[in-house]
Amino acid sequence: MSDPHTPPATAVNPLSNAVGKARRAVEWLAQPWLVQLVVRVALAVPFWRSGILKWHGFLQLSDTAITLFTDEFMLHLPGGPYPFPAPAVVAFLSACGEVTFPVLLVLGFGTRFAALGLLAMTVIIELTVPEGWPVHITWAAMALAIAAWGPGRLSIDYLLGDRRARS
Q1: Whole-angstrom Cα distance, residue 155 to residue 165?
Q2: What average pLDDT does this structure show over 81-100?
Q3: What's the pTM?
Q4: Contacts of 121 (CB under 8 A, 6+ apart)
Q5: Angle at 120 between CA 136 and CA 152, to 5 degrees
Q6: In the chain, what is the straight-line distance between the N-terminal and C-terminal CA atoms, in Å?
């Protein structure tokens, strides 16, 4: 005698089969190497776009970049906000990081270190623009994912031997 609350096996199997097929389709589409590449590019884009605007020529910062760090940007720390120390130096280092780290990410070269560099920059950006936390936490999550699971197969690091899978 069967339980009246248990659906018949014929009703469960088609649903179970459909869910299994859908899951396998998603897994086929979301290949780890593809996800890792997309996350690297997604994190690189906003930093590259910001960084490229800070340059006025080869190793020459725009006046706007220096003005931002001198007059506009402040560190929102307890008892603050405080101005950036050595704003021209900080502007230069920021601009260098914003163009170098994204290039390294997209190429997949020194990827984990580039991701940690962008994570550190994200922390400083958050201290500068605290109301931007919904975007900043997304950047932090992407940087941590790249640092944790590496660049994936489509990277120079992979060709150089960074193939250790992380569980």
Answers
A1: 14
A2: 93
A3: 0.80
A4: 47, 94, 97, 98, 101
A5: 85
A6: 46
